[in-house]
Design goal:
- This protein has 281 residues and is mostly beta strands.
- The chain has 2 domains: 80 residues, no CATH class; 201 residues, no CATH class.
- The protein is built from 4 helices and 17 strands.
- The strands form 2 sheets. The protein has a 15-stranded antiparallel β-sheet that branches.
- Strand 3 and strand 4 form a beta hairpin.
Length: 281
């Protein structure tokens, strides 16, 4: 015995424990069997906004409801920072002790990402991509080997804040370089418990452009005046351990040198988190 039916969603909003904001869900779900709550492939809904902490919009989701409380995600894409946040096709068992899936970032605009994360005193160019394998359990969620990296030939970073005005030595040179910094490579990795600590390794390299850097604070030459150079190569390698809910602050450390330098000053009187991590050079 079979029973068929259609459920029409017209601007439905809802909230879950892990995703507090789900707005404007629209579409029709055609059930092939109401007794087992299963559907044919290719069911489609749109989602106006989904916000688990960072807002993504204009969602397009294709799926199939299977027997035994399983959902086949055929495709799921949202607009994010002028690019796309997507979920790789997978089958999820509702109520399972563990669920694994992977999110991907494609063609994200660096400037739009800075605006989305509210990173102050920064401008940027370039495109970013990445992937985030996730493990969901009944108690928490874990990211395993997540990475964001620069696409193509990199881009330009420019820090316009005043945090470096009183800096000296190597710190001052780092601030000066990041006033106009042409990066060739940029990557950020994430591993850890999203309800606890996430370890992030941030690496970017390139050279200063625009205004020359004054090397006098670290390489004074007796009898020679002020030494300024342009195009000096720099490598920044930073390791951060922090609660995931401060991810926006972690993201800011990719580009805001004041965060890195302030962390360094605070740790001078403390044991370093990772004593093997080399300083910026």
């Amino acid at each position: 015995m079979l029973g068929t039916g259609i459920v029409r969603l017209d601007g439905v909003s809802l909230s879950t424990a892990t995703i507090p904001i789900v707005n404007d869900v629209r579409g029709e779900i055609r059930f092939g069997d109401l007794w087992t709550l299963t559907t044919p492939p290719g069911q489609r809904v749109t989602v106006g906004e989904l916000n688990p902490g960072i807002s993504v919009t204009n969602g397009r989701v294709a799926f199939q409801l299977l027997s035994e409380q399983r959902v086949s995600i055929e495709s799921a894409e949202f607009d994010f920072a002028s690019g796309t946040l997507a979920m790789r096709p997978t089958t999820i068992s509702l109520g399972a002790d563990e669920t694994r899936f992977e999110l991907t970032l494609r063609d994200v605009d660096a400037a739009a990402l800075l605006r989305t994360l509210s990173v102050p005193d920064m401008t940027a160019t370039g495109r970013l991509e990445g992937s985030f394998p996730l493990l969901l359990t009944r108690r928490s969620a874990f990211v395993e080997g997540g990475v964001i990296r620069a696409q193509g030939e990199g881009g330009l970073l420019s820090y316009t804040g005043q945090a470096g005005d009183s800096a000296t030595g190597v710190s001052r040179i780092a601030f000066d370089a990041l006033r106009s910094f042409q990066y060739d490579n940029l990557s950020l990795t994430l591993d850890g418990d999203l309800n606890g600590d996430v370890v992030s390794s941030i690496e970017f390299s390139g050279h200063n452009s625009g205004r020359p850097v004054d090397l006098g604070p670290i390489a004074p030459i007796p009898g020679v005046g002020r030494i300024t150079v342009r195009g000096v190569p720099f490598d920044f390698i930073v390791r951060v351990t922090a609660p995931f809910r401060r991810l926006a602050q972690t993201a800011a450390t990719i580009t805001d040198p004041s965060v890195l330098i302030n962390q360094s000053r605070e740790q001078e009187a403390q044991e370093p988190v990772d004593p093997d991590t080399p300083p910026p050079r």
